[in-house]
Amino acid sequence: MALAFGLIWYHRMCFRIIFIVFFSLPLICSCAAQQVGFTKSIIADQSLAIKKIEQVFYEQSIKHRPESIVITNDYLGLSSGTQVETKGAGFTSGVAGTLLVGIGTSKSYVKDITDRIYFNSIGKIALFKKRDWFIIQINHSDGRLFRNIYTRDKSKATEFIGSIYYFLERS
User: Fold this and answer.
1) Does 104 score more than 80 pLDDT?
2) Overall pTM > 0.85
């Protein structure tokens, strides 16, 4: 009896494992970004290249959108805004029962958070698709990731890549 129960339990566990593997694997794979082939757009004008780069950056969701962009012949500068940190100290004391005197100091610093992507340091540029988003991945020449840029339009993604290559070829 115990042997029969053990075999039934073993077959149920095997079935559960097979069920989990075969039905969860497609769900896990569908969550990953898939690399997409592309043909970069040919951009022949610097002002058009700048407009295409700015448009894709500014159309990203707020989470990924930079505050400002500076594009020169040498680099792409991105500012994520200004960070202000303030530290202060103060104290009060009662004088003559009801009168309060306060003394305080504060110290602040402002930091502009920026990234610079030098065109001559860019290595591979890849395009991925995940659900409704196309993800442009800009990598350093040594393979490190510089930045991911997100757009919902494949033609804008290929124009963006073509615009980056416009500056790459001239740096």
Assistant:
1) no
2) no
